[in-house]
Amino acid sequence: MRKFLRSVSTAFLAAGALTAGDTTFWIEPCTNPQTSCEKGDVQLAHWALEAWQAASGGRLHFVETGYRSQALIRLVWATPAQGLYGETMAIVVNGRRGAQVNVRIAADGVKDRLLRDTIVYLTCLHESGHALGLVHTAQFDDIMYSFQFGGDIPDYFARYRRKLATRDDIPKNSGLSPADRAHLIERMSH
Ligand SMILES: [Zn+2]
After folding, report:
1. Whole-prediction pTM value?
2. What range defines the domain where residue 39 resides?
3. Best exposed site among 14, 97, 141, 162 by fewest CB in 10 Å?
4. How far is ligand 1, taken at its centre, from the CA of residue 165, in Å?
5. Residue 45: which pLDDT band, with cuts at 50, 70 and 90?
6. Domain CATH for 62
7. Distance 169 CA to ligand 1 centre (A)
């Protein structure tokens, strides 16, 4: 059993991405008011992970755990001091490569509820893409697009918002571009 575990973890680290097998995740409950999170944001984070899983063509299988210490992907709500939109850092969990995803809710003063939820959802989606090993692109259509390349940031969120009549439309609109899907599949095939 020990040998088996070691060989699995070695293969995993060599692959450099979250690939075969179950990928455990944990999402922080919303408790810290400084982060501007709301209870329902946990569901938005779930939907973001489900979108990647659905795009993976069966390669990804997320499994929720109630224990942060056991989770390969840990999504936490960040405070304003922790960056503008978020940050994802590599961690090692029981010898496997994992990621801590810090999601900063940059929606201060946004009065439109669905626009606010759009910003939270797309931020979760972008940062969890990094957790899966995806890098930035320069294509405005991609969720992995980086604002470093310029572009109309309000319109980036507004174009997704325009697809929503209610909050329940979020899981029906993944927010992933064909290129995002292709990059995920490519990343997971190595
Ligand atoms: Zn990024």
Report:
1. 0.88
2. 2-189
3. 14
4. 27
5. very high
6. 3.40.390.10
7. 24
